[in-house]
Every structure is written in C-alpha cells, then in structure tokens.
Amino acid sequence: MKYISTRGKAPALSFGDVLLAGLASDGGLYVPETLPTFSQEEIASWSGLSYQELAFNIMYPFVEGDIPAAAFKEMINDAYAGFNHSSIAPMVQTDTNEWILELFRGPTLAFKDFALQLLGRLMDYVLTKRQEKLVILGATSGDTGSAAIEGCRHSDHLKIFILHPYQRVSEVQRRQMTTVIDDNVFNIAVKGNFDDCQGMVKNSFADQSFLQGAKLGAVNSINWARIMAQIVYYFSSALSVGAPARKVSFSVPTGNFGDIFAGYLAKKMGLPIDQLVVATNQNDILHRVISENDMSRQSLNVTLSPSMDIMVSSNFERLLFDAHGRNGAEIDDLMTRFNAGDVSLSDDAWSFVKSHFDSYKVDDSRTCEVIKQVFDETQYLLDPHTAIGLDAARTCWKDKSIPMITLATAHPVKFPEAVEKAGCVSPVLPDHMKDLFEREESYDVLDNDLSAVQRFVTERL
Ligand SMILES: *Cc1c(COP(=O)(O)O)cnc(C)c1O
C-alpha cells in the first residue's frame, strides 16, 4: 500500500515511512492511494469474529508489504490485551435502536487507546527493524497525551514529549500523564491553549533543525495509523446490530475530525452506513462548515468537554482532499487561502461534504441536561463528550428504523466537573488507577513560546 499527501507535493511513501513521518513534508496529511473495499458477503462472513480477528482483516491491507501478517496479529493481540472488557468495544442499549458504543475500556479510559496502544507497538516494531530511534512530539487537549504515553512508554526506541495546555486539562487527565515516571517520558504544560500546543508541534515538524539530526514522529491524529485503527470499531459495532444486512448510522463527538473520518472511510470500504452525524461543542467550526459553509476560525471557548476544545480541525483536510477530486494542488491552494482568511468552500466541495455528514452543536448547559436526563431514565452515566454525541444523534436521526450508534469516547470518571454540574455523582476511579491522586507527578511548565519548548526538547535528546 502506498500513501500520498493531500497537498500533492510530497513523495508517496510506504506504510512504515508514513507511520514514522506523521505530517507530509509539503505540510499535507497522508492518505492511502487507494482504499481496500470489502463485499457485503465478506463483511457478513465476519460476524462471529473476535474484535482482534476483525481488526486484522480490516487493517492488514493498509500495512501489507511493511508488516508481516504474523507480527501484525501479535501486535493487535498485545494492543488490546489491556482492555477491561472481553469484547473490547462493548455496546449498551439506551432506547429502541439507540446504542452507545463504549470506547473507554482501555488503560486510559478514552477511545484514543484503540489507536495509540497499537501505534506504539507498530512504531517500536518498525524502529527495531530499521535500528532507528524516534522523538515523539505531541499536543494534547487531554486524552491523547495519556494514551500516547501509555502506548510508547515501554519502547527503547522512542522518547516522548507531550505538550498540554497549562491548567486546561482535567486533573484526572493531567495525572494520567504526569504520574508516568519513565526516563523516556516528558510532560510539558504550556501557558497557552490547545491550538497553541498543536501549532508548536506543526511548526516543529516544518522546521526540524532544533533536533540536531534526530527524527521526529507524531502521535496526533495527523498520523495515518491512528485513523486506520479507528475504522475497526465502526465495523464491529455495525455487525453486532445486524449490518451488513441492514444499514446503521453513527453519531460521533469530534473536534479534530479524526474519529468521524474513520467512519467515513468505513463507509467507503463497504460498510452500509446511512448517516454520519458530526457532534460538536461550542467550538463548532465543523458544524458551521457542514451546515452553512463557514470555515472561519473563531476564538476558543473553554467548555465542559475539553477534548473537543479546538478552533481548527486538522483532519478535515483529508475529507477536503476527496471533496476536491483528490487534487493536491487544489488543497494546497485552499489551505493557503484558508490561512489568509478566505473561509468558504466551492459549491461542489460543500455539496460533497453535506452529502456525507449531518451535524449539530451542543452547549454546556444542554450537555449537563442530557447527562442528567439519561441518568434518571436509564441509570447510565454519560461523559460530557458522549452526551453531546447522543443529543446530536437524537436531533439528527432521520429514520428511526435504522440503528443509531453513538460513540462513547471517554469514561465519565475523567470529567467529574461536568458530571457534578449535571447533578450526578462522579463515579469512583477504576481499580487500576485507584491511587491516581496519591501518585507522584512530574512535569515542567513553559511559556507559550516555541523556542523555549524546542530548547527543552533539544536539551533532553
Ligand atoms: C479526542 C477526543 C474526542 C475528539 O476526537 P477527534 O479525533 O477530534 O474526533 C472526543 N472525545 C474524547 C473524550 C476525546 O478524547
């Protein structure tokens, strides 16, 4: 499988190279040159498979040529061995045809474990084979950081530096990162917001001279391998409610457009998906572009669903690439115009986007209402991101005979503030993190200044 850049100027690369490169050298994002597709018969034949077997069938075409089948199977088994439910991604029914897909059964209690547990192992495998080392630099709005650290901490070939916005992640989120005391793990609290952190990571990829020859790798969802791993649970959940014999719909709480983009790919690969609902909080650039063709950057709102507090959605570029007939030059031009403040799509591109996605925005007070209402009716406690997803699902659902699956992206214990504001009681920490608040923390607070952050990294190479 070859991968090409959305901006058309970087060379096509193999899976192994894309895995280590992250962002393409022309500033674009890598996407597969062609997508594997599966027939309805083939998908139907997978209904009895374990999550791990299904994951192998869906992902192997993407890595073939770079990772041998046996090694890949072992990595998949390892990656999901630390999940606390035997079906890995269990489903809970909350109403007729209404389902919650629990993606928070991994070690850090958010859906990012699905991709990052695998990513760490894939990187370690490729680096071992090539006898190379890699410096990981990532930005997190809360959940990526801990999942990436958990996925990478055991590799001798990786050093990981994670930037988080100082005092803007929940205490559970911060402690899940900063209590991992390993020689190759560095947490940096930047006195800025998530977009500042993400901007520093992007700038560091664009000019890597500060690294003095070391190689830089990405764990953010610009890394293709993360998207790939997220395709699997669309198939597993759809199969469990009767696909491919019937259609299914999904609602996905999203900010960076990573998770829902994986759903779009599942559809293109043959899964009969009716609706894909984009659910946003007050930071609604995705809702605005889908509903009214407005891609303007607005100032950041701090919300009760901090993992979606972003102004710019990096992965949307991958969709725009398809919306422009996969013409890299057009995307290069569009991104230049976008940075200069021109913020709408052509009619054709906007129609393409609207033909695949519905969208809805949910504010903080409504998020709390939904948490409370669902808890009162079903005794099921939603985290604030999932509550946004469920409210969007219920609002945008067109055909109630088609199952609607809302992705539960985090466990509610990670977001006690929202749960308590909703008038519910925050659950107790699961066993493996019972002593989280007593553990020793280690992190550095740095100014919102690229050179200060780069100096910090250079000194620790
Ligand atoms: C990261 C995250 C999201 C958003 O994921 P995208 O990649 O932006 O789609 C939603 N909810 C939670 C809990 C997250 O950690």
TrEMBL record:
Enzyme Commission code: 4.2.3.1
Domain Threonine synthase N-terminal: from-to ranges: 2-80
PROSITE patterns hit by this protein: DEHYDRATASE_SER_THR
Cited Pfam families: THR4_C, Thr_synth_N
Cofactor(s) the record lists: pyridoxal 5'-phosphate
Highest taxon of the lineage: Bacteria
Entry GO MF terms: threonine synthase activity
The protein's name in its UniProt record: Threonine synthase
Keywords assigned by UniProt, alphabetized: Amino-acid biosynthesis, Lyase, Pyridoxal phosphate
Organism the protein comes from: Marinomonas phaeophyticola
Stated family: Belongs to the threonine synthase family.
Top-level class of the enzyme under EC nomenclature: lyase
InterPro entries: Ser/Thr_deHydtase_PyrdxlP-BS, Thr_synth_N, Thr_synth_N_sf, Thr_synthase-like, Threonine_Synthase, TrpB-like_PALP_sf
Gene3D superfamilies, per the entry: 3.40.50.1100, Threonine synthase, N-terminal domain (3.90.1380.10)
Metabolic or biological pathway, per its Swiss-Prot or TrEMBL entry: Amino-acid biosynthesis
CDD domains: Thr-synth_2 (cd01560)
Catalytic activity: O-phospho-L-homoserine + H2O = L-threonine + phosphate
Transmembrane segments: none
Annotated NCBIfam families: thrC
